[in-house]
Structure formats: structure tokens, C-alpha cells
Amino acid sequence: MDEDPIISVRGLVTRFGKNTVHDGLDLDVRRGEIIGIVGGSGTGKSVLLQAVVGLLKPAEGQITVFGENVRDTTAEDYRRLRRRWGVMFQDGALFSSLDVQQNVEAPMREQLALSPETRAALAAIKVRMVGLPDDALQKMPSELSGGMRKRAGFARAIALDPEIVFLDEPTAGLDPIGAAAFDKLVAQLRSALGLTVFMVTHDLDSLHAICDRIAVLAEGRVLATGTMAEMQDVDHPWVQAYFKGPRARAALAQKETI
Amino acid sequence: MDMNTRVSHPVDKTTALQMKFADGVLVLQGDLLIGVVEDLIAQQGQAETIDLSGVTQLDTAGAWAVVTLERRMKAAGATPEITGATPLQSDLIETLRQNMPETEINAAHRISIADRLERVGRYAVTSFQKTIEIIGFLGRVVATIAGLSIRPNRIRWTAIVHHMQQVGLNAVPIVSLMAFLIGVVLAFQGAAQLRQFGAEVFVVDLIAISILRELGILLTAIIVAGRSGSAFTAAIGSMKMREEVDAMRTLGLDPVEVLVVPRVIALIIMLPVLGIIANFAGLIGGALMSWIELGVSPGVFQSRLVSNTGVEHLFVGLIKAPFFALIIAIVGCFEGLQVKGNAESLGHLTSTSVVLAIFLVIAADALFSIFFVVLGV
């Protein structure tokens, strides 16, 4: 684990107008880990994700992914980088005019010259791997439930076997059983595909169940990183309230009984 | 996790895949990744063993290709064995075996003639149903307006005035500019024809009658359909999408009363006003062009306009305005309420609303023309 981090953020500053979201944020993500990003509303968790995948230009700071600087890549380099990660947005962000199969095929269609049969077969496998039934392939996103849309979005994110997947609140809006199943799925695919998972989440159960490390965002920077157990000892009011509140105790107790 | 056993691929450093058959063994070496799987599944040979010991990197697509080959060989009666895979690679292959459908999935199926025929039938039936629904919706709106006339304190004046500003006042610049230019075009084209007969002065009658009777109000209605009809659909549609319309119902508010009636009333009031403005702008444009092109002075234009063009032309034009307004507002609001939960249906219905409203306005205009000819007006 002493190799170079797969994602490294140094001195990140992002601003929207006069509002500074990140003020000198540092974060390292190691290869093969599942890292959970937590923080109160408006602390810039999703903004951090957008900055790392290059959807948003930060005001200052350096972001390197796979050792390459995301900010000053050429269009060609960025294309190559982008092939190596997948992003799942909050509600799946499926293309509403395409059915699930076409959604999952979309990255293959754009990036590779594969025959339609191969694409269809690979899409069918990815859809099964995320636990959707076969008849979901022909459905339009509007016909799917929220949980199924998230799964389909995840299938699209892993369509090209990326090395990193970014998940934005993957379990938000799911019922506890669905959320637990999604957690299990992420953990399974992590070991099957050797993924590194960068996950923005509020779900204490997910943090307990699958995250190797947790990074807490507050006051414009990463306040603390560490395992769930280490979070208990961080001396900060927000962290204390978050990890020692009634919900956190319930999640912890549940884990101990398993 | 140990780096060397990573199954997924760093794209940067790849070694080309090599395949060779030897003594019933298919030996694969190099990177078995998504880019090369089609070469691999094109292999037709039979083998007892598939040797993966030389495979440096394997991704899902590669594992899929291996399992596809294995299945195909099994179907041909062989019992191939996969050897030499690292534990992680075997795990991935096992995951694939579990997740692969038994039969090969077909790509998109072709559309047959029967499908096309069925589509025509469905389209005809849905169009018919939609016609009935729109008429039903019109009835509901009229009934609601009638109900409001008994209890005028429930009329939403603020909303009506707001929409009057949106569809009326804010449309004045574009409508006047459009009508002005139409007047200019009519004068210019009319002059070119009439000059051949030395009948230049009749250009006044030409402009006056065509603008007052037909073009002023028809083109205004078309602009308003494109501008406000689409805005009605988009506004109501996005409220439908965000479940605001359902929220209204649970609060005991009638969406027709709150959303539709103010828009219909505002448009019925404002479209005649816009029509009058368009008539003025059109006549001014025509007079200006007649002056420049034919030397018909504004004074002559005015006196000829007053003496030769009966006032009935103005009324024939303006009487159509409230009907056009009703068509545009009803179609716009109706399509807005049809929006389902996705963004695509919003865009689709917005364009349907504009096309349908313009079509119905022109159809109604044709009916009015016949009607006035029969009446002899």
C-alpha cells in the first residue's frame, strides 16, 4: 500500500462567485480501496467529484489521476484518461431517449469499434452483473424504479471495465434492503473487477459495510481520513455528531451483531 | 491488493494478444482486453484445453470471450478445460459464467411490414382518441369558466394579468416587426405586378384587404402559437414532471382552474389586441413602401384606405382572433398536462403542441374563409 496514490488532490480551491467551496483541500485515494466521502450539505462533496473527473475547473490546486494532471491535459490525453474511469451520477443520469441496453452500450459505441452482437452480449453481462433482470435491457429509463435506474447507471459506469468508479450518493433514495444490496454489489464488483471506488455518500450503513476509509469534508478541506473506528476519536464537533449520533450508533450496533 | 494480479487493465501498457493452437491446446498470451475479443471469438478451432498462463491482463470482455469459446466448444461435443489462470482471473471468469445468458443475445430485431402496418393502425387510433380527449378538455375548460362566472371571487386576476403581460405585452415588439415587414413585402410585390397595368394606386386596396382580413391576424396567431403555446406546454409540463400538479390536487386546487383558465382568458383577451397592433404595423409598413417604391404619399394612402376599404374587413379579421386564441391556449395547456415523468416527453410534447396549434389555426382560418364567402361578407 505504499505505492503512489491513484488519485491525488493537492491544495484544491474551488469558488462559485464569492463563495469558496474548497479552500486548500488535500486528498489521496489508494489503488483498490473503497473511499467514502462524507460531509454536511454544501461542503462540496459532489463538487470535489466533479473537479476530479474534470467536469469543473478549480480555481487553484493540482489534481492527478493515474499520475496525470487532470487540469492541463490535452483533449487526447483527457479522452484516454476518461476511458479509465466511470461515473455514476445521483439518479443514474441515464439517457432518457435510449433503453437500458443502448445506455450501457453507449460508452462502448463511442470508444471502441465492436460489432453490434459483441456489444449486445457485453451489455447483457454488465446488466446481469449489477443484478438487473434480463427484461430490463429493453426498458426505457422512465419505466425503471429509482433503485433500478441506479443499477443501470452503475452498469453503464463499469461498461468499459474502468479502474476507478465514482459514485455520487449511490444509496440515497433506496430502501434499506435495496441500499444494502447495492453496497454488496459494489463490494463484489470491486473484487471481481479490481475497482477503486470513490463514493460520495451520507449512508452510515454503507460507510460501515464497505468503505475501507472515510474522508470527512468540512470547512473547505478534508478534516480527517481514516477507518470508521478511527473516526470515533476525531475531536471535531461535526465529526462527533455524525459518527456518534443515534443513527451512527444504530449502524455500528447492527454491524457488531452480524 | 497486489498490483501484479490486478485483472483490470491499465490502458497505457498493453502487449498484443497472441493465439496459437497446438496439440489440442489453445494457448493465449498477452493482454486479453475488450479491443481484441472479436478476433478471439472469431476462432473456430476445437481444443481440449484453453491455456491462460501467458495472459497478462484480462478484463470482463476478455473473460466473456473465453467463456464464449468454452461454450461453443462444449456445444460441439468437446469438454475444454481452462488452465493457467491466476486466482483473480478465475474469479472473474466464474463471475462471467454466472452472469452470461444461456443463449446468445441478438442485436436489435428488424422491423417487419406487419410492424409498420400495426404502427399505422395504432397511430390512427391514438389520433382519434386524442381528438376526443382535446374536445373533452375544451368542454372542461368552458365548464370551469362558466362556473367561475357564477363565483367571480374565485377568478385569479393576478395570474390572468401576469399571463396577459407574458403573452400580450411582451409579444408586441416581435408581432409589430413581423407585421411591418409583411406590409413592406406586400407593397413591394404588389407594386411590381400592378405597375404593369398602370394600376399602382390599387396597391393600397391590396395591402389593406389582405392584412386586415387575413394576414395580420393569421400571422400573429402563428407567432403567438410558437411563442406562447410552447411556453404554456413547457411551463405546465415541467410542473407536471415535478409533481406540482399532483400536489395541487391534494391541496384541493383544480389544475384546470388554477393553471389553464387564466392562460386561456389572458390569451383570448390579448390576441385581438395583438391583432390590432399587427394590422397597424402592417399598414404602416405597406404605406412606407408604397411611398418609397410607387410615390403614393401617406396622405393619398390614408384617404384611399378610408374611402375604398370597408370597415367589415377589419371585423372579419378580428372576429377570428378569440377562436385562434382558444385553439392555441387549449392545445398548449392540454399537451402540457400530458407530460409524463421524463424530460424527453416534455420536449416532444412542446413541439407537438406548436405544430398542432399552428395546423389547427390554419384549418380554422380556411373554415372561416368558406363561412364568410357563403355569408357574402
TrEMBL record, chain A:
Write the record's keywords in alphabetical order, separated by commas. ATP-binding, Nucleotide-binding, Transport
**Ranges of residues in domain ABC transporter:** 7-244
Determine if Repeat is one of this entry's keywords. Answer: no
* One Pfam family hit: ABC_tran
Task: Give the coiled coil ranges.
Answer: none
Q: Which InterPro entries match?
A: AAA+_ATPase, ABC_transporter-like_ATP-bd, ABC_transporter-like_CS, P-loop_NTPase
Name recorded for this polypeptide: ABC transporter ATP-binding protein
Give the matching PANTHER family.
Answer: PROTEIN TRIGALACTOSYLDIACYLGLYCEROL 3, CHLOROPLASTIC
Organism taxonomic ancestry: Bacteria, Pseudomonadati, Pseudomonadota, Alphaproteobacteria, Rhodobacterales
Annotated organism of origin: Yoonia algicola
Q: Name one GO molecular function term.
A: ATP hydrolysis activity
